[in-house]
Amino acid sequence: MESMLYPKMTATRRVVSLDGMWKVKFDFEEEGAAKGWKDGLESDDLIPVPASFNDFYTDKKYREFAGDIWYETEVVIPEEWKDKEVALRFAAATHRAVVYFNGAEVASHEGGFVPFLADVTERVRWNEKNRIVVKVNNELSKSSLPNGSVIEIPQPEGSDARKVKMIRPGFDFFNYAGLQRPVRLLALPKTSIDDFTVVHELDGEGARVSYQVAIRGSEKVETKVLVYDEAGKQVAEANGAEGVLSINPVRLWNVRDAYLYRFVIRLEQDGQLIDEYEEEIGIRTIEIKGIDILLNGKPVYLKGFGKHEDSDIVGRGYAPGVIKRDFELMKWIGANSFRTSHYPYSEEIYQMADREGFLVIDEVAAVGFLHFSSMAMFMGAGTGIKPTSFFEGPEIEPLRKNHLAAVRELIQRDKNHACVIAWSLFNEPETFSEAASRYFREIFEAARELDPQKRPRTFAMEKSCSPENVGCHQYCDFLTMNRYYGWYIKGGYEIAAAEVEFRQEMDAWGALTPQRPMVFTEYGTDTYPSEHKLPSVMWSQEYQVEMLEMCSRVFDSYEFVKGEQIWNFADFQTVEGTGRVNGNKKGVFTRQRQPKESAFFLKKRWEEL
Ligand code: GCB
Questions:
Q1: What is the pTM of this model?
Q2: What angle, 0 to 180 degrees and rounded to 10, lies between the N-to-C axes of helices 597-608 and 320-333?
Q3: How far apart are CA 370 and CA 340, in angstroms?
Q4: Percent of the chain having pLDDT more than 70?
């Protein structure tokens, strides 16, 4: 069972939430497998699901834990489901998991940001308690997405800790992990809708929607697709597992002016309903033409943020209140877009973006694919300091496999969302080696082939990817740039020099042919919310505004610039270190989602743009 459809109750489907307090046990001694923890955990420790496990405890050994975290819960499954397929659905388990059901291994999954199913149909004990144990692992390696490593820290003599592992992320956000998204129990018909795909085409006042329904199971069924508008009026109907729906006139989905049709898919046998599923779908087209990004044939300019799923206490855990607050702030400030830096976000965020008309650059967790010989990761990125080659060595083959799987799963999950207008296939990778170029070609081709809507593809480029370095950026349908002029490059009093250098680089990009649209996916300054200073200094709120003024001037001077997504929406947690004051402070909002001075600058600019 591999369906990625979002779990929904319908006439034929049952969904039960397994969220709540689960038993948990951290495998400090690496003994869980040998001691049979899959059959049940001896532990009094309870932990909420969904949430990152890291920020609940008062002892660092939990927050920084590297290894296997075992979770357990129980569920009674009713006999009335006997003729159904029964599955567990994990919206994500970070970064990998093995699932045991009544002691038997029923699923495993690599990659911490997309859903997977565990089919338990054959193992259910009806009307009794069934035990679910999940072994989650949060370690990073050179073949994992995201990329990083695990080191062992030597302990002083006499210490009782035998072996202490520590995670070294190859990226600038905290390696939050665990069962971070909802877990559900599903009961589906034996013959069911496994997948559903739509592709839109404008046709005068109307639209043609080509659709495909994938069916699982052996029974012969007839497929029906019905489309309803927001008032509940039926506007189209088609029969067959694939076909074309004509909606005329159509109300298109537009930026900050969303309209969603309800697509109902029915499988029937002699007039009897076998399965039913529905999805809200926005009808729109997206393409790149010359230096323009065209939504429904009209140019759009992206205004918004690189974000993180990150908040107090629950870390990267699904937090619907935070999602709501973030959308309200993005609307208030006049944004129209964001990038899911640096991993696929919770499904509910895309549903909200569909509903609110936000444009999303959807990023796979390919981050940390760049190494610097001497400096800390975040001091190297963005400075133009030459990184060392990355795409060589024995770990690249498993990395390539994981990356291709992650792209396939991301596209399968998100392909019908109107809000998703592009795929970002890497963040700040190494781009100068020949090995990089080969690797890129394959990933870019896979994305093109897998996406039924053929959305534009890109990757967020670090400073060492320059106009002269044509190893990789030629694969992009549009360019996305991460640039820290005025921060890592010539910050403070030197900001005028930063502007000069910035313009030189822009002139060089402008001279490339053919020209493509360019979107800034990162620019920013760390800003401590308590610091004010006149005249400004770096880290003060005044300086963040000055940097924004400088960057805005540059963006406005080049007509191929088609968007600005500042880094970051809000302050977020990172590892500890001399370059970070309890996290990255480049937020326009604090981690508690209150505005810094720069928020008012951006609101004015974006409302007028
Ligand atoms: C970058 C990275 C981002 C960091 C940011 C920074 O280039 O893409 O993950 O957080 O710089 O603030 O240094």
A1: 0.97
A2: 60
A3: 19
A4: 97
Residue 269 pLDDT greater than 80, yes or no: yes
14-138+175-188 matches 294-521+562-570 in fold: no
> How far, in Å, is the centroid of ligand 1 from the Cα of 3?
34
Half-sphere exposure of 271 (CA within 13 A, CB side): 0
Tell me how far the alpha carbon of residue 233 lies from the centroid of ligand 1, in angstroms: 47
Nearest to 330 by CA among 296, 300, 305, 310: 305
428 is catalytic: yes
pLDDT of 373 over the 70 cut = no
Question: Would you call 9 helix, strand, or coil by DSSP?
Answer: coil
**CATH superfamily label, 14-138+175-188:** Galactose-binding domain-like (2.60.120.260)
In Å, how far are 369, 370, 565 from 472, measured between CA atoms?
14, 14, 22
Q: Is residue 374 over pLDDT 50?
A: no
Domain boundaries, the chain: 14-138+175-188, 191-284, 294-521+562-570
Distance 378 CA to ligand 1 centre (A): 6
Cβ-in-10-Å burial (0-12, 13-18, 19+) of 232 comes to exposed
* Ligand 1 closest atom vs CA 378: 13
Q: Contact 248/229 with Cβ under 8 angstroms?
A: no
Q: Which two tokens stand for residue 72?
A: 């357990």
Q: Average pLDDT for residues 14-22, to the nearest whole number?
A: 98
List b or e across 42-73, with b for residues whose CB sees 16 or more CB atoms inside 10 angstroms.
eeeeebbbbbbbbbbeeeeebbbbbbbbbbbb
The per-residue pLDDT for 375 is 44
Instruction: Choose which residue among 147, 172, 488 to substitute to test ligand 1 binding: the one with the highest number of ligand atoms within 8 A of its C-beta.
Output: 172
The pLDDT of residue 379 is above 90 = no
Ligand 1 pocket by C-beta < 6 Å: which residues? 171-172, 342, 378, 381-382, 427-428, 482, 522, 567, 584, 586
Of 364, 378, 544, the residue with max ligand 1 atoms within 8 A of its CB, to mutate for a pocket test, comes to 378
Q: Looking at ligand 1, which atom is closest to the CA of residue 586? A: 12
Q: Which CATH architecture group holds 294-521+562-570?
A: Alpha-Beta Barrel (3.20)
Identify the pLDDT of residue 247. 98
Phi first, then psi: what are they for 451, rounded to 5°?
Answer: -85, 115
Active-site residue (options: 428, 505, 564, 597): 428
**What's the half-sphere exposure (Cβ side, CA atoms, 13 Å) at 328?**
9
Domain 191-284 bears CATH identifier 2.60.40.10: yes
- Angstrom distance (rounded) from CA 406 to CA 414: 12
Of 229-238, 431-440, 462-471, highest mean pLDDT? 229-238
Q: Rounded to the nearest whole angstrom, what is the distance from the C-alpha of residue 460 to the centroid of ligand 1? A: 11
Distance CA 218, CA 425 (A): 36
Nearest CA to ligand 1 atom 6: 378
